[in-house]
Amino acid sequence: MNISFHIARRYFKSKKSTNIINLISKISVVGIMVSTMALIVVLSAFNGIEKIVVGLYTDFDTDLTIRSEKGKTFNQSFLDLDTLRNFEGVDGLSRALEEIVILRKGNKWVKAQMTGVDSSFLRMSHMENHLYEGDPSFNFEGLPVALFGVGLLQKLDTYVPRFANENSVLFNVPLREGKFRPGKNPLSTKHIYIGGSMNFNKEVNDEQVVVPFELANELLNYRGDISAVYLSVDPAYDNEDIKEALYKVLPKGFVVKTNFEKNELIFKTSKSERIIVIFILIFIFILSSFNLIASITMLYVEKRDNIKTLYSMGIDKEAMFKVFFYEGLLISFRGILLGILLGYTICVLQINYGFVKMPNSNGEFFPIALKWMDGLMIVVSALFLGVIASYLPSRYLFRKHDKIYFHQ
C-alpha cells in the first residue's frame, strides 16, 4: 500500500510542466476546488438569506399563536393566561385584537389591518430591530401612539413626526354591533398619533398598524373578547415541542400554530430553492470530475511501459490499481482541501468586511451564515464523489486491459 502511494505521489509531482497529463491534472484540481468553493459560498449565502427571511416573516408573527378553532374572537376568560405566561418554555405572552380598519389622512383613505397588542409584544417581535423611524413604544408623554408599516404611511402620504403629538391619523373602526341606520354611526372613530414606522416584510409594511391593546379594545368595544394570544418561545426550546405540550393544557376548540406554519409557503419555497441549488452544484462537481477521469486514463496510456516494467519486478494487478486510484485521490483531496480553505476564507471576509453589497438595500452587506452541518455535508459529499471518480476509471482500466499485462 505504501509503495503504491509513493508511486502515485511521484506521478502527481512530475516536473514535466509541458506534459498534457500534468496540465489535465491541474485542471482537475482547479475544477474540484472551484466546485467545492462554490458549494460552501452559495450554501452559506442561502443560510444568510434564510436568516433574514426568518427575521422578516417570524419576528412579527410570534413563535406560537393560539386562536379559536371556529370563531373570529373568544372571551379571554376561556384561557388561563397566567398558566400560559408561566408555561415551561414560554418566554412571553401578549393578547391580540385584530380588525380591518379604514385610515384617513387628509384626502387619503387606506384600508389597513389594525392589531392591538400588549406592550410585551414589542419585545417579543424585536421591534427595536425593525423600527424605521420613531420609538419602539406605545406611549408618548402619557398619550397612546400607533406604529405604522412604512408602506402604509407612504400610502397615507404622511410621515413620522419628531414629536408624536404633532401628527395623527383618523381611525375608522367597525363596531361589532354597528348597523347602517339613519342617525347611527356603525364606525368608531378616533385620531391616533403616529409614534413610529416599522419595517418587517412587504405584507406587514403595506397593511399593518399596531396599537396598544387597551386602545384597540376601546375602539372595538369587545368587552373581554380577544382575537388571539401570541406567545414567544425560549430559544432553548423547540416551537413544535411547546405547541404539542400546550394542546395538553388548552381547552377544546383552540388551535395552536407556529410562525413557520403561518408562513408555510415562504419557507417551503426557500427550502426547495436550496435543494435545487445543492443538486446543481453537485452536478457541476460531477462534471468537473470528468477531467480527473481523463487524467487517470491518459496517465494509464502513457505509463503502459512502466506498468510492464513494474509487473516484471513483481508488482501484482491490485497494487498497480492502487497506484492509479491513489493518484486520483491525491488530485481530488487536493482540490477539495483548497476549495474548503478558499470557500470559508471568502465567507469569513464577507462577514467581517462585506465586500459584496445587496442591491437596493441602502448599502447593506450580502448576508452570510456558516453552519457546521453544511460544512460536514459538503466535505462528505465531495470526498465521496472524489473517491468514486478515482475508483471507477482505475478499476475499469485494469479490468479491461488486465489480460495484456497480467495474463500474458
Write up what this structure looks like:
- There is one protein chain.
- The chain is α+β, with helices and mostly antiparallel strands and 408 residues long.
- The chain has 2 domains: 2-57 and 266-406, no CATH class; 62-259, no CATH class.
- It is built from 15 helices and 13 strands.
- The strands form 2 sheets. Strands 3-4-10-7-9-8 form a 6-stranded mixed barrel. Strands 2-11 form a two-stranded antiparallel ribbon.
- A hairpin with a 2-residue loop joins strand 6 (139-140) and strand 7.
- Helix 2 (20-58) packs across helix 13 and helix 11 (264-302) packs across helix 13.
- The two termini are 25 Å apart.
- Residues 11-18 have low confidence and may be disordered.
